[in-house]
Specification:
Layout (H helix, E strand, L loop, with lengths): L8 E6 L26 E2 L8 E7 L2 H8 L7 E8 L4 H9 L2 E2 L2 E2 L4 E4 L21 E8 L6 H8 L4 E9 L2 E2 L8 E3 L2 H14 L17
Parallel strand pairs: 3-9
Antiparallel strand pairs: 1-3, 1-11, 2-3, 4-8, 4-9, 5-6, 7-8, 9-10
Length: about 220
Amino acid sequence: MKTKSRHCTLAFNKPYGVLPCFTDAKRRPTLAEYVKAPGVYAAGRLDFDSEGLMVLTSDGALAHHITDPQHKLPKIYLAQVERIPNDEALAQLRAGILLKGKRTRPAEVRLLSDAPELPERPVPIRFRKNVPTAWLEITLREGLNRQVRRMTAAVEHPTVRLVRIAIGPIMLGDLQPGHWRELANSEIEQIYRTAKAQRSPPTHRSRSHPAPPRR
């Protein structure tokens, strides 16, 4: 069983308007303003204008299990969208959306009956007069660039706020924006187990000996 041993692995609630990296030539807000743990880096991305859970780690093998698309590690988002999606729009999102000639993997999509309890965003969303909004819970098993926003825009329900609340078995919970906590060994073991269970079966094009994780 794998553990974090000498490595440091954190769950971080990225605030709105923060880059998912530690340096920026344009001096925009970065993770460095919130996380001082040495040697960690982001296992995956979360857009500047999105919020929520990130895993930061010094463990290259763990980062590989989180980000490698073959593992299909589920990631759950709360998306506030313009207008109320009908059954047809929800079915399209669930089946997969064609983005630049490639169809996204099937997604789990649920229309929430009530707005989730979330911290207020420092920059309020831009409401359009007479345009209602709705909240969707979307579970993806891939990580295309700005995927949730592009998917909802494709069915004419632009996303106005996006919060990631889970990466595999790791939940955001009540972690406040700008705060982090260290993951327990048991949580890291859960990531490996979940990634292994979700891994795509090998195909005839697969290499007989997989490349070692990048560190």
